[in-house]
Amino acid sequence: MVDIHPRQGRGGRPHKSTSGAALNWERLTWRHIPQAEDFGDGEFLESLPLRELGERLIQEYDELNWLADYSVRYLWKASGGKSSGNPTLGKCILTSGLVLYFAHVDWVIWLGADWLREFEFNEDKVEALLYHELLHPVLKEQKEGKPPKPGARGHDFEDFTDVIRRYGFWFDNLQRVKKAVQGRLALEAQP
Q1: Statement: residue 88 has pLDDT above 90
Q2: DSSP-derived pairing of the beta strands 107-112 and 90-94
Q3: Which of 82, 76, 148 is nearest to 117 (CA)?
Q4: Is the alpha carbon torsion for 165, 167, 168, 173 positive or negative?
Q5: Around Cβ 40, how many Cβ atoms within 10 Å?
Q6: Edge-to-edge strand ranges of the sheet holding 72-77
Q7: In the prediction, which pLDDT does 159 show?
Q8: First-to-last CA distance in the chain?
């Protein structure tokens, strides 16, 4: 089934990877991160289970509720790559121009299947990462009389404070932040 946001009103059709092979949706759940061979010659796989998880998070958390009026497409990416030498676990992309024209969605969120397999992400970590990516979309105020425009925001630090509140220091890289915060709190507690 194609991962089309219901707001678009398009009927589904059997989804095929770019290699032409029919995808086994029983095997491609967010609890089972796709293997390299699942991508065939392609770079991305649409994911109904990730969409369902994203929609649940949007419905469940007040800070995300406003996204229900917008469209987000959820994908697995074969290789997340690196940014500044660090693994890119996922990304939220604001669509515009040609991508917006063809995708008909406001944002695209992808998770890097290679890194999530390597770091042995469980369902809690996948959820925390998707929640993290859902914190990137924002609405930017426009001039008087114009409706807000979709945008994207950067991090509070290497993550968002809301992610830490809900999921704790969920990824190994955040342990450095945890130690820094604990050290700072210990200094402030001294008379």
Answers
A1: yes
A2: antiparallel
A3: 76
A4: negative
A5: 16
A6: 44-46, 72-77, 107-112, 90-94
A7: 66
A8: 62
Write the CA distances from 189 to 101, 133, 165, 178, 185, integer angstroms.
55, 34, 21, 16, 6
Q: Residue 25 — very low, low, confident or very high, per pLDDT cuts 50/70/90? A: very low
Is the CB of residue 3 less than 8 Å from the CB of residue 15? yes
107, amino acid identity: W
- Angstrom distance (rounded) from CA 125 to CA 128: 5
Closest by CA position to 111, among listed 11, 39, 10, 26:
39
Among the listed residues 171, 114, 126, the one whose alpha carbon sits nearest the alpha carbon of residue 30: 126
Q: For the whole model, what pTM was predicted?
A: 0.72
d(Cα 36, Cα 18) in Å, to the nearest integer? Answer: 13
